[in-house]
Amino acid sequence: MSAVAPVPGAAPPASAPAAGREQAPAPGEGQGPGQRHGRGPGPAHARGRLTPWLYLAPALLVLGGLLAYPVWQLGLISVLEYTQAQVSGGEPTSFQGLANYAELFSDAQFWDVLVATVLFAAACVLGTLAVGCALAVLLTRVRAVPRLLLMLAALGAWATPAVTGSTVWVFLFDADFGPVNRVLGLGDFSWTYGRMSAFALVFLEVVWCSFPLVMVTVYAGIRAIPAEVLEAAALDGASHWRTWRSVTTPMLRPILLVVTIQSVIWDFKIFTQIYVMTGGGGIAGQNLVLNVYAYQKAFASSQYSLGSAIGVVMLLLLLGVTLVYLRLLRRKGEEL
Amino acid sequence: MTGAGAGAGAAVPRGRSRRRLRVRPWRLAAEGTAVAVALVVAFPLYWMVLSALKPAGEVRSAHPVPWTANPTLDAFRRVFGQQDFGRYFLNSLLVAGTVVIASALVAFLAATAVTRFRFRFRTTLLILFLVAQMVPVEALTIPMFFLMRDVGALNSLLSLMLPHLAFSLPFAVWMLRGFVKAVPDTLEEAALIDGASRTRFLWQILFPLVFPGLVATSVFSFISTWNDFLFAKSFIISATENSTLPMALLVFFDAETPDWGGVMAASTVMTLPVLVFFVLVHRRLVSGLGGAVKE
Amino acid sequence: MAVRTAAPLAALALAGTLLAGCAPSTSGGGPQKDEKSGTLRVWLFREVGNGPKERVVDGVVRSFEKRHKGVRVDVRYIPVDSRAEKIKGAFNDPSSAPDVIEYGNTDTAGYVENGGLADVSAEFADWPQARDVDPTAKTSVTVGGKVYGAPLFVGVRALYYRTDVFRELDVEVPRTLGEVADAARRIRQERPGMYGLAVGGAYTYGAMPFIWAHGGQLAVKKKDGTYTSAVGSADAKRGIAAYTGLFGDDNCPAAKCARMGGNENVEAFAAGKAGMVVAGDFNRQAVDDGEVKGDYDVVPLPGRKRGSIAPAFAGGNNVGVLKSSSHRTLAVALMKDLAGKDTQRRLFDAMGFLPTFTDTRRQAAKKEPFVEPFVETLDAGTEFVPATPGWAEIDAGQVLPTMFQQIAGKKRGVDAAADEAARKMDEAFAE
């Protein structure tokens, strides 16, 4: 973290001409929209090299202090024997090497659960993004009243505590006491009995409670596009579709990027919905996902070492997915 | 509602009116869809409120009708009758409010740094921000617990504010990045040429411009803080007077004898403030303050 | 090149020192003083309708404070569902820890293992009232021969049945487990919209009596004090087969019943969807809120032979003293007050909690006929889960529900599923 060190005169000069970030790689040529609204290299401004760190300081302080340390401990605990007896009973901790990982990887169920988690999370991410984006666009095409109605409904879904939302959905789809089966004429079909139908039900609830975030942020993104940019496009004679494709979408990309990455992270770690809706992982564990598995195997019985090992595995997996995703974007000319 | 504005077209120049006419059926279809989707999305919420109002025996009954002949406020009475309920409510407001404001300010600064400056470790830093979210929170609570204990924050509202601030920040920074990025550089140049200081540009020009993004991230941090159970359970141990609302909801989730009416009533009470909060800020989101650019 | 190899080495060395010096926090440290004044902190569970409980406890506290000058008792009510985190917090940060806690009796072994509960064997032995504590309740505070608290109340399950349905179909109240199954099938046949006996693949406490009634055990204690699983034994398997045989279209279809837990069973019965259910004394309110109010009665769940009662699981809560308490003598005194006969009597009147003292319980049954079948069940002898921390892991890992669900869903036979469960249990016991 010594990037700050070589700065000569610490204080950020107000107007001395310098090449700050502008020497950075120019964004994709031929991608067109870049130049028009200034994502490209603009005229240089003075930028003290300390300024960004100054702006970052509060965030780094909070994140470094509150998250870096626990994550470091997580790695440490995963190679130790560390249960509640060690935490509170004063029993000595002992170094286990990779034993916790070996235990995890040798469990056949772990691999089943991992595959199910990846597939289920992928479905949830795609479903959430598709619904969220479609409705965000829809919001821009309607007048105030329907817009407010949809927004409030979505906000309500988002704001409902996950455990309550899950409970209500199970009630609605209950074979004996739920209205949905009656309306759909499904008789006493049990949604939670089959593996696929149980996952499908949870999928619906997950999309229900997570599309609002995508919708609201993407909508905010569309709203934040300066009017003159759109006007300029219109004056240039660009069609509706073209404006959308070459002006709006590129400006939304950073927002889509973050909702995608975040959705991947959240949906991969899904817990409450599965736990509540399938009764802790479904009939004979058929609907287990990694986080619920971790809870049942480790956290519920205070086996923190094994739990931390699972956590580290999840961390590496998600980090890998994120990096691959960012790399793919960069190859397509998208910069971070 | 949907039929409004039919006659308005007459006054506008011909070219535009033709366009409008062509668009209208589409808009009607769009508005119809929006309302229909809103109804579907709201139905589980309706069911929640309805279950809160039904007498205990009707919540899980073989006749699941979407109404009740004997509405009762008993469940709400059980919620409000809990020891210290008002206190929990205030605690929740205080924690969520602090987290929202702090995370908006801190994230805005950080987002500006990573977007409008280039420096080493910029990308790495952005990715590192996310790392803590990639592990199960249960795994982090133990080390966080000791951290809170060692800084003496345990049992105080600070022990909820700090972790939630830390967990809302990464998303907020990433999110605001997109909004800061969308503000044209030309604007900054113009401002600086006009003699504005960077600080002035930051707070008086950039900040209002990214407001829609701030609204979106604020709603996010509000909701995730407001609805948190795990930290509320783990970090407020002996000082129950510092508990937050989810603890009042938890009482009704008894494994052997859950009180569904109480669950639904408490959840309704918890969901309402979020909607109120949203209605208060949503005008900012809708108007987007995009107008500031025009001047 | 040299730098390159040096860096990882340095990192390793650093990791080594950190492992030694900066290992994850622990918070050992045994008890210290035994102060005779100051504040006693108490955690009790916050029930849904907590008012009456608070009033009883307030009475106990007032009289305790009057008898002990200079002592203040600070009672906090915590949601049952937050107990795991709160207790862990209390173990990890002694300064936040209470002196006296109420805890679920299945948690006893885990809390003892974690070094949280104080051994009160001596005080318990000297306590005159302790002689009337019923044996299973005493088992539920005992780990490895030592006593770690006083039983506060007991919860037990019996057979609820629909008097109107039984009358209309002219079915006799069953007196053996076989008759329960016959009656269940008969009801299902005549009333296709109803389950005969509501059963649940996740309803472990409802299924256990079937295992015990057939002479089976969950686990047996070996001479060295460790446990070994017994669900793979022939007797246990017969019981498992008897219970899982009730899943099917002729009683409770697996598609709906395999996922059910105890509460879902009770809800089905309360809504008039079941002819019988195994449910607890604590489920009375839920049933009375439903549509079957006035149309049901309760009898002990019968055993395999006529006149016998299937051993039930004795759940309930205990009151214990934390090891970290600096007011041990006072805390034990308060524990006795809170779990004493007088308080238990008042708690029964206020909350319906069944007393753990046999004599107090009999008086309660006289006052309130509803609890009679439950008291009968308790008097016939009850069973408890293995008193070892491994049980928490087995419970959290849903070992037994998985077994029942596999068999109910016809994914596995009784033998294979039970042997697998036994293997998993032994793994947990071994840790």
Automatic annotation (TrEMBL), chain A:
GO term, biological process aspect, one: transmembrane transport
Record region (Disordered): 1-44
Domain (ABC transmembrane type-1): residue spans on this chain: 114-325
Keyword Cell membrane: yes
TM ranges: 53-72, 113-139, 148-172, 198-222, 274-294, 306-326
Bias (Low complexity): 16-28
UniProt xrefs under Gene3D superfamilies: MetI-like
Membrane topology: Multi-pass membrane protein
Matches recorded under Pfam families: BPD_transp_1
UniProt keyword annotation of Transport present: yes
Localisation per UniProt entry: Cell membrane
Key words, A-Z: Cell membrane, Membrane, Sugar transport, Transmembrane, Transmembrane helix, Transport
Any GO CC annotation of this UniProt entry: plasma membrane
Family listed: Belongs to the binding-protein-dependent transport system permease family.
Name of protein: Sugar transporter
Lineage: Bacteria, Bacillati, Actinomycetota, Actinomycetes, Kitasatosporales
